[in-house]
Amino acid sequence: MSEPSGRFEPVPAPPGTPPRRWARKTPPVPTGPRLEWVAWTNRAVAGVELLSGPVQECAVLSESAMWSQHGPTVWKAAGFEGTPHFYPVYQHGDHYSYSLLSLILNKGCLRLNPAVVSEIANRTYPYQSGAATLDREIIRLGGPVHSSREIRSPEEFARRVASGMCADSADIERRNPGYTNVLMCGGRDSLNMLLVPWRNPVLVVSAPPNHELVRAFMAENGLAFDLIELDDLDASLLEVEVLVNVCRNDLAHCRWAPQLARLARELSGRVIFWKGQLGSPFMTAKWKHYCHERDRLAELTDRIVRLTGGRGKHRLRRWLDESSILQRRCLSACWERGAMWQGAH
């Protein structure tokens, strides 16, 4: 489909001044199919305004401040406290955001990063690394978490994960007293959220085919939360979903927005949506195979197995299990790949 002439472009600014806002060329009077395009652009304008709202100023910004409150998408601060290891945090000068698109809209222009463009053009792997950014003037803060490998017991690991989930949820509830927690549950990772000792009201939402799995889990654990079944039949917010998602994810992972928006309105906006995701690299043995893409380690392993006729396979696997190589690879994949899923949502 060709792009109509009413596309968004930066408003020209005086020489030496970066453009600060966006405008749309005035299209000819629409007739026929162009009416649909004008309706799309009007809704897209609303999406742009949502992502480029007022800038919130503060002395020093932190991950906790960014992720524990609703409202701003861009912050202006003298500095950033801490080192992000997972959730995306982007910086342009003294402006910060969890949304790359919000920072691009805020500064008014895109300075294309040729290295990223070249990487995309010369690869066959479907996931683009989140380590580099599409705009060469914007950087992503932090890096993969470093593991000291001090936890050796699965039971101790499970206890610490449960303790962390309870502490995080309690902190968010403390900051938002009286808000309703809406738990978006599928059939695996997110079920753990149902076991958290919530203090504020709780609603559980789920969609087929996992809806019955959630119902069975609640019955098995004696949980009496209200369970709402979601559908994906309303496409009225599709354009905004595309814009907000900005090519970071398959839209199969961006659903139910109109129904969830109605639920938020019914609760007067006093609602917190929770979702569980990326549990497999932390809660199952799949972490040994979780990587951003097929790397040199996998190729080397296959080559050794071929050369030894399979005789060295078990010895090699044992050596890899005892080393920190697989764990470092997994944590790097969480940074480069898994975190992008979180940013998209």
Looking at this protein, list some descriptive labels.
345 residues; alpha/beta; five-stranded mixed sheet; four-stranded parallel sheet; 12 helices; 39% helix; globular
Task: Explain how this protein is built.
This protein is of the alpha/beta class and 345 residues long. Helix content is 39%, strand content 14%. The strands form 3 sheets. A 5-stranded mixed sheet has the order 3-4-6-5-7. A 4-stranded parallel sheet has the order 10-9-8-11, covered by helices on one side. Helix 2 (63-67) links the parallel strand 3 (55-62) and strand 4 (74-81).
Could you give a quick summary of the protein structure above?
With 345 residues, this protein is an alpha/beta fold. It has helices at residues 34-51, 63-67, 100-107, 114-121, 154-175, 211-220, 238-245, 257-266, 280-283, 296-307, 313-322, 325-344, and strands spanning 8-10, 22-24, 55-62, 74-81, 90-92, 95-97, 139-140, 180-184, 202-206, 226-229, 271-275.
